[in-house]
Design a protein that fits this description.
The complex is a heterodimer of chains A (195) and B (91). Chain A is mainly alpha-helical. Chain A has helices at 6-23, 30-37, 41-47, 51-70, 80-97, 99-109, 121-136, 145-152, 154-164, 179-193. In chain A, 68% of the residues lie in helices and 0% in strands. The longest helix of chain A is centred in the N-terminal third of the chain and has 20 residues, at 51-70. Chain A is globular, with a radius of gyration of 19 Å. Chain B has 91 residues and is an alpha+beta fold. Chain B has a single domain, classed as 2-Layer Sandwich (Alpha-Beta Plaits), CATH 3.30.70. The chains are: A mainly alpha (195), B alpha+beta (91). The interface between A and B is medium-sized, with 17 and 21 residues.
């Protein structure tokens, strides 16, 4: 009798994310994954019903990890400026430590392949409480959530991408996301979101 | 034998039940939705098959069966009789 092998399962996950990030969704076949994870195709199907199930489960697991990391030392009742700074630092730390995970969730953010409604409730509730508190206290401009998210977090993810890929705008040296650059950008973001 | 080997307990969290089930995995040539539907009529009629699916998005067109029995040849026979190729995927 064979039981679920946690190590095997995590290798399958890790390799699947690497393949998707490097070769896109169409680049992920069960054969390729089996080879990369050094398991048989049959083994993958013990853990996952099909490719769709695999991608959905990867998404759920990765967003959970990201949510846990994001909520460290975060108090939804704190001042908006302070809370957003903690959010930024937590998210940057997570992305730099888990570059594949970050690129994977970015790839899926706008993809019809996953049901994003499975996203961690604890995380969504904390974020929602944080934002509504800040609006009530006059620390944050009331905005449609898409606009709020794009102003508050998209700059961070873009700069992290520059940093991870060691790239920049054409003709510029590779961008390094250090404390100075973080504070500069965060300052601009906070200014933009002030009522 | 691969499928006899695969006995594992479903976690209660995931599937909401704790009966022991076997996962049987086959490579097939079932590659259209209409074939899946046709085969479904046969598989759904088996009371000891808990669930099944065909992965149409991958080249092996894997038929994955969760059942209370571990006898691969039973599935192979059903699928072959329906006119499809069905080969046990070994470890």
């Amino acid at each position: 009798m064979r039981t679920r092998d946690i190590n095997k399962e995590s290798t399958i996950r890790e390799k699947a994310i690497e393949i998707i990030v490097n070769h896109g969704f169409d680049g992920l076949s069960m054969h390729k994954l089996a080879k990369a994870a050094e398991v048989s195709v049959a083994t993958i199907y013990i853990y996952y019903k099909d490719r769709e199930d695999l991608i959905q489960k990867l998404y759920t697991a990765e967003t959970k990890k990201m949510a846990d990391a994001t909520l460290i030392n975060f108090d939804p009742d704190c001042h908006f400026d302070e809370g957003l700074k903690i959010q930024w630092l937590n998210r940057i730390k997570y992305c730099l430590e888990n570059p594949y995970s970050m690129q994977f969730t970015e790839q899926l953010r706008n993809s019809p392949l996953v049901d994003r409604s499975v996203m961690d409730r604890r995380f969504l509730d904390a974020m929602s409480k944080f934002v509504h508190n800040a609006i009530d206290r006059g620390e944050l401009l009331p905005l449609p959530v898409e606009i709020y998210w794009s102003v508050a977090f998209a700059p961070l993810y873009q700069l992290v991408k520059f940093h991870i890929s060691r790239s920049s705008m054409p003709g510029r040296p590779p961008f390094i996301l250090d404390e100075k650059q973080i504070n500069l950008t965060l300052g601009l973001v906070l200014k933009a979101l002030k009522p | 034998m691969f499928c006899g080997d695969l006995r594992h307990k479903h976690s209660a969290m995931e599937e909401n039940y704790t009966t022991e089930a076997f996962v049987l995995v086959f490579k097939t040539n079932i590659n259209h939705k209409k074939d899946v539907k046709l085969l479904g009529q046969i598989l759904d009629a088996q009371s000891d098959i808990i669930s099944w699916n065909v992965d149409l998005s991958d080249i092996d067109n894997v038929l994955r069966i969760e059942s209370t029995f571990s006898d691969c040849s039973r599935i192979q026979e059903l699928v072959t009789r329906a006119g499809y190729h069905c080969e046990e995927l070994t470890d």
